[in-house]
Amino acid sequence: MLATEAPIARHPAAWLQPLPEGYTIPLWRWILLPATALMLRRNKGVWVSGELQLLPDRLRFTETRMSKSSRNPLRTWEILFADIRDLRVKKSLAAETVEIDRGNAMTRLMTVRSDDFMARVREALEGMQET
Asked: From residue 118, how far is each of 18, 36, 79, 88, 106 by CA, in Å?
C-alpha cells in the first residue's frame, strides 16, 4: 500500500504519536527530565516531525530525520479519504492543530501556515464524497 506514488502536495507537519495503552512515565524521567515528562503526560504522546503528503485518494505521513543512519526505519502511515469522518483545524498563537477523525481513532498533527494545503485536502475529500 505504501507505493512510491508522487504526491499532489506536501506540507511539513508533526504527528502526535500516542503513548502505548497502559504506559506510565518512569520515575527516573520525572527526576532527570521533568519538562519532557510533563509534556508526555499533558499531550499523552510524542511529537514526531515529518511531512504530510496529499495523494489522489489518501493522506500519507512520513517521518523526517536529520540523521539518515538511524537503526530504526522511518515511521510512515496513510489514511484513506473514505475513512475520514471529519477534518478540523484549530489555530493557536504559533501553530495549528489538525485533527483527523476516523471514527475509531483521532489523529492529531501540528503544523504552521497550512491554509493552502488544507484547502486542497478538503477539495479532495469533497471530490471523493461526490463520486
From this structure: 23, 30, 15, 10, 17
What fold, for 9-18+27-130?
Answer: PH-domain like (2.30.29)
- Tens digits of per-residue pLDDT, 70-127? 677 788 999 999 899 999 999 988 899 999 999 888 999 999 998 999 999 999 888 8
- For the chain, give every domain's residue range: 9-18+27-130
Task: Return the C-alpha cell found at 118.
Answer: 488544507
109, 1 contact by CB (below 8 A) = no
For residues 37-67, one letter each, b for 16 or more C-beta atoms within 10 angstroms of the residue's C-beta and e for the rest, the string is beebeeeebeebebebbbbeebbbbbbeeee
Is-above-0.70 flag for pTM?
A: yes
- Retrieve residue 57's grid coordinates: 485518494
The grid cell for 66 is: 536529520
pLDDT tens column, 17-67: 999 889 999 999 999 999 989 988 998 999 999 999 999 889 999 998 766
